[in-house]
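MOLECULE: protein
FOLLOWS: sequence and fold
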Amino acid sequence: MQGAPSDSTPRQTDDAQATRPVIAIDGPAGAGKSTAARMLARRLGFLLLDTGAIYRSLALLADERGIAPDDAPALAALAASLDISFAPAPSGEGQIVRLAGRDVSEVIRTPPISDIASQVSSLPEVRQALLALQRDLGKRGGYVVEGRDIGSVVLPWAPLKFFLTASPAERARRRHEELTARGVHSDLEATLAEIIERDRRDETRAVAPLIRAPDALLIDTSHLSLDEVVDRMESIARERLGAAFLLDAPKDSV
């Protein structure tokens, strides 16, 4: 299910259309989606839905239960009963991800879980099991939704879509610095190899591959600061969506 909506493409319901709009942000690993999405949501007064955290949480749970990352039936069953919730962090920065009430915000970002999540997310059975959950949240409106197939598959009706990208070398550098800052050992060359492999896996999977939706606005973040990226996105959102749906949050609140 790619490209412009067709007769088989899910449509937004009338009730959903009456709510605040939803903004879709897609792109490869390390392009800055998560932080940019969080900042944009806060500036506009929207909620953030990090779909990557859903797959990461599933990967963590599967790893803890000894389920292989290629065991599609077991993973799909686990996904169908996934007990996940999101809440703003007390500091106001980021969000807390809870799995069955347990805070897993940090552990799901570690390299081993990231690798398992990439494998798990390539399985059609898993993606189908989690699709309804993501669509249900998105249809409520007022969300910035970040992932890899949001604009092309999950929420093709989103009125505003962004596709963030950056060179593999720049994305590897960012990931390496992020891990190092958190005290996690990281090798830059190994990180680059992981980024390239993850791109290959995401772009060639049979279901919902990583692609830019035809109506998604492309932003190459390779030579832009985070503030420059979010400034650009915010300006476009306010112009296209209209002030009636957006909060007039001050820049220094980010």
